Give the backbone structure.
Amino acid sequence: MDVEWVTKFLLLHLFLHSCTLSTHRTASDSCTTHIILPGPEGEHGEKGDLGEPGKTGKQGPAGSKGLIGEPGQKGEIGQRGKIGPIGAKGDKGYRGLPGSPGMKGQPGRFCDCGRYRKVVGQMDINIARLNSTMRFVKNVIAGIKETEERFYLIVKEGKNYNAALVHCKVRGGSLAMPKDEETNSLIAAYVNKTGLSRVFIGVNDLEKERQFMYTDSTPLQNYSHWRPGEPNNAFGGEDCVELVSDGGWNDVECHLTIYFVCEFLKKNS
Ligand code: GN1
Ligand code: CA
Ligand code: CA
């Protein structure tokens, strides 16, 4: 807007305003007669001095993202990597072709086979003995009865009277010889507990018919436990004695194959 024109307008406006609002004026002070008009426009002033430099402007916003740069140069070769884990085992390969036959062997020498056979035979005997001992030990572990003076062991291997006698003897004992009721009852209870019905004991009349003796060659003295009607030497051939589960004795044939009871003297008694 032109400055000059504005100035004129303001002065006129001021004048009119002061007339209308004034209440203490007289009629002679009529506004319409006192119009003040602006004078002629003066000459242009001189050009002002050069202003001081303005303050530093605020920091502008971040520029937009630049274009992607050119790729760098290829790096040097890296170090060798670690050895990987062991791989899974491969499948078994196919069976190879059979090799060519070997050369013919040298002629055999004279063999002293008889000597070897003897050694092998002796080994067989030793193994059989060992097996027998093992069975015996197994029996011992299975259970053994005892009095103050002796151990009693039922051997659950069927044998005739003589074989049973030897079996007990080679193990340091003898066939059981019950010489009192207490021992006889103990053996009977042992037979029952083992689930057996009869066993050989060390009594026989092999030497002289009807003269029964213990295997230690002592005669029956104050004690015996014959079943009713025994000994009867049935069929004329009963010279060995069995103890049945009720504790009673019966003369039977010596070739019978039945279980038997060994007794062992306690060494420290
Ligand atoms: C008879 O009944 P048993 O089998 O238990 C016999 C015994 C003989 C035995 C021979 C009362 O006994 O004396 O030794 O057969 N008993 C009677 O196997 O005669
Ligand atoms: Ca007899
Ligand atoms: Ca009999």
About this structure: The pocket of GN1 (ligand 1) is lined by residues 229-230, 232, 234, 238, 250-252 (CB under 6 Å). Helices lie at 3-21, 113-142, 161-170, 181-193.
